[in-house]
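User: Could you write out the 3D structure of this protein bound to uridine-5'-diphosphate? I've included everything you need below.
Assistant: Certainly. Input first, then the structure.
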Amino acid sequence: MKKDVLYIVVPCYNEQEVLPITTERLREQLKTMIDAQLVGEESRILYVNDGSIDSTWQIIEEHAREHKDVCGVKLAGNVGHQNALMAGLEAACERADIIISIDADLQDDVKVMTEMVEKYHQGCDIVYGVRRERKTDTWFKRNSALAFYKLMRRLGVKSIYNHADYRLMSRRAVQQLMNYRERNLFLRGIVPLVGYRTDSVYYDRTERMAGESKYPLSKMLNFAVNGITSFSIKPVRMVLTLGILFTLIALGILIYVLIAYFSGRTVSGWASLILSLWFIGGCVLIGLGIVGEYIGKIYIEVKDRPRYNVEKEIMQ
Ligand code: UDP
Ligand code: MG
């Protein structure tokens, strides 16, 4: 019987320091799985170069020349982690039965891939890699991530706690995923919507092998705002609730002002009036900001731009 072909998709943005180790580790893992007859001989590592400005692509080309199991896709420019990942999934989907996505920095334990593939053979279409602990992350990163997951849950977005983009998907799951045509990609939120039988495997997250994080605070915040506004309309509802609350408060103030007027103490009411003026003004602005966020999204979706343009491909 023909064994299922596995493609390991790795988005890379300026990862020249870490790529040599990554290729070595991933090839080792791939070989272990091929030897154990878990996956077929035609299995590959597929790097997606997300418009790196260092020598990442040259290194990928070199590795592809040296090793038959290394492939690469070069995007024409930097489109961000999520879009680069999607590009890789789409490219891999044509040839693979199983696709695993993992970051280039090897923070996620490659060894649990064996377990993931075993779960696939047991009939799962999606297997999430879940971090058991985040000891090596900084205090700030750990806690900001935790707060984010909690907020997401509150706002009604389905997402797997402590799961990043390390996951296995079957070909049909990826094909389904591609039907989600939105541009504001937040894969962690979309993948659970795909459905099918899912499971998780657990591992300890280690430190980055080399290079530095490509997710500075600004990108993390961006990612969080995107994640929430792409999936939840609760913020808009909150504005509505606030609006009602403020109207009620304004009524109370009106009564107070009338009483003050008839008892001839109008000047003393000035402070509270000015205060509420500012307060309400601020809230209106916040409301407008949130609504604007959604309108911005509609704007981008309506333009229906391609997610990426492939410049070159090495497939062997
Ligand atoms: N990445 C990418 N495009 C970007 C930023 C990051 O493809 O614009 C890749 C990066 O090369 C890595 C993965 O996304 O493989 C995760 O990035 P990183 O490890 O820097 O994020 P962190 O683990 O610090 O959240
Ligand atoms: Mg990382």
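The pocket of uridine-5'-diphosphate (ligand 1) is lined by residues 11-13, 15, 50, 78, 80-81, 84, 103-105, 107, 213-215 (CB under 6 Å).
User: Perfect, thank you.
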